[in-house]
Design brief:
The complex is a heterodimer of chains A (212) and B (299). In chain A, 26% of the residues lie in helices and 25% in strands. In chain A, strand 4 and strand 5 form a beta hairpin. The longest helix of chain A is centred in the middle third of the chain and has 26 residues. Chain B has 299 residues and is mainly beta. Chain B is 12% helix and 32% strand. In chain B, strand 3 and strand 4 form a beta hairpin. The chains are: A alpha+beta (212), B mainly beta (299). At the A-B interface, strand 2, strand 5 and helix 2 of A face strand 10, strand 12 and strand 13 of B.
């Protein structure tokens, strides 16, 4: 979605105005919040640092590329769940002017983010996950603002810890334990013909398809 | 000086262990000596007094073992003699090295089989390693262990090295072992890459390893003994051991376990027999002569 829409204006706080993927934007907001939360901690108490060799906790999106050092824990990793148009309005449109064919498409996207907390000890993973669990209501407004999220659901799920050897086998001590948080959230996305160059795009695609 | 021999641990009751000892023939008055039985859950201590000083007794019953049902928790005993009224105090411990436990005494054949296997490991296929026996008893770690849930609350504990018991591990034992070269595996997990290595350790009859012990190689590669340990024994006396081992992630606190060696010892460390690095044709080579000498002096 181009950043020129009157409705989908880019929040000045995001610092990433060229991102058009609203779901990625939301995911980045979750990550930024997590990093900020652990950046403020004292040294020796899971303090996050941008420098991967200095940080006491790894906070990353899923499948980080070329991550080094390997095997460092605890890890907090986000992964976005499936996104679905919620079909909350008739034909997903907002009538603008009855005299014109212009229309604005608007709908809510239902999505979720899974925050995986991995630590050596089960209770350690559980403790970190619970802290996130109870901090989400506190920072809900900030996360929504940063990620341009319409709403964050209250029915957040905290899973039990994984079994011994479920993630990495072979060790006689737990070594890798994981607890997950599943958080539903909603994004309102708006597509307007008023967006810059959007009308030209529609015309070009229709012509390619042989439609006038 | 009084000498003690024939120390034995016996019992057919889970509630106690009998510790027996005998005094070698001597001209001294045995009544001038007190005996204190000491106990440890590690062969090399630290040993704690189990009894008050006793005189003219050669048998003690340890009733504190009641309720300890682990197959692998071993208790070692030794006897300290104290000459009464001596100043400074004349005190000696028996046996001189280590302690005795409830175990079968190896027969001559078992001793020879163990010796040959140890020789094979030391001189041909093994390398020098250090075994840190994991503590399984003693003082619980107050920094990370939750008494109510009976679980550890966090990792990287500098008090117990994530073992749950203060100190974490007993002093390391130097020995020779063969570690089979493992497959280097990278698991591409959702949250990042995990490097993992699992392999097999071949060890002689000593020290007896158990699950959780840490093995340190000369290259500071550290391994944790996994769950299923295979021990070959003759008449219940261990001859050799084989165990799966799992490489410890480098970010774990076990890498902080101190291996106390002097700078010179570290500099001159040779994990394999030195003669293996010298061409035997160069017989006049001084390093070969040194290596050959080392073969018989045990260096």
């Amino acid at each position: 979605m181009p950043a020129t829409s009157n409705i989908n204006r880019v929040s000045p706080e995001t610092g990433a105005p060229l991102i058009v993927d609203r779901l990625l934007m939301a995911n980045r907001a979750w990550l930024t919040w997590l990093q900020g939360l652990f950046k403020s901690r004292p040294i020796g108490n899971y303090k996050w640092d941008r420098n991967v060799t200095e940080t006491e906790i790894i906070i990353t999106d899923q499948n980080p590329s070329g991550s080094e050092p390997s095997n460092k824990r605890p890890i907090i990793a986000t992964s976005r769940g499936a996104a679905t148009w919620a079909s909350t309005s008739m034909n997903q449109t907002i009538p603008v002017n009855i005299a014109t064919t212009n229309r604005i498409i608007s709908d809510i996207i239902g999505c979720s983010v899974t925050i995986s907390v991995i630590a050596r000890e089960g209770l350690e993973a559980q403790g970190l996950a619970y802290e996130l669990f109870r901090m989400i209501p506190v920072f809900k407004t900030s996360i929504m603002k940063l990620g341009r999220i319409h709403a964050i659901g209250n029915n957040i799920t905290l899973t039990p810890e994984t079994q011994h050897g479920q993630i990495v086998q072979g060790s006689s001590v737990p070594e890798w334990k994981m607890v997950q948080l599943m958080i539903p959230f909603y994004i309102q996305d708006v597509i307007s013909v008023e967006d810059e160059d959007f009308y030209t795009l529609i015309r070009a695609v229709n012509l390619h398809m042989g439609l006038s | 000086m009084l000498r003690i021999s024939e120390m034995r641990v016996r019992s057919f009751d889970l509630g106690y262990l009998d510790i027996y000892w005998e005094v070698d023939p001597c001209f001294e008055d045995i009544g001038d000596y007190e005996f204190v039985v000491e106990r440890s859950d590690n062969e090399f201590g630290p040993y704690m007094d189990l009894t008050v000083p006793v005189v003219n007794r050669f048998h003690v019953k340890d009733v504190t073992v009641k309720g300890q049902h682990s197959y692998y928790h071993k208790l070692y005993y030794r006897v300290r003699t104290i000459k009464r009224g001596s100043d400074p105090v004349e005190s000696t411990v028996f046996p001189d090295v280590g302690g005795i436990r409830l175990a079968a005494k190896p027969d001559l054949m078992a001793l020879e089989m163990a010796r040959l296997n140890n020789l094979k490991l030391k001189e041909f296929m093994g390398r020098k390693v250090w075994v840190f026996p994991k503590k399984t008893a003693g003082q619980r770690c107050g920094a990370c262990f939750d008494e109510v849930s009976q679980r550890r609350l966090r990792s990287s504990c500098g008090v117990c090295f994530d073992a749950g018991w203060v100190g974490g591990y007993h002093a390391p034992v130097e020995t020779y072992a063969m570690i089979v070269t493992p497959n280097e595996t990278t698991i591409h997990a959702n949250f990042g890459d995990i490097q993992t290595e699992d392999t097999t350790l071949l060890l002689g009859n000593y020290p007896e390893i158990k699950e959780g012990d840490v093995i340190v190689e000369a290259e500071n590669i550290r391994w944790r003994v996994a769950s299923t340990i295979s021990k070959v024994s003759k008449a219940r006396a261990v001859i050799r051991q084989q165990a799966p081992i799992h490489r410890i992630p480098k970010s774990d606190i076990e890498y902080s376990l101190p291996l106390k060696m002097s700078d010179d010892e570290i500099r001159d460390l040779v994990a394999s027999p030195e003669r293996n690095y010298t061409n035997p044709q160069t017989i006049e080579e001084t390093s070969l002569a040194k290596a050959l000498n080392g073969t018989f002096t045990g260096n």
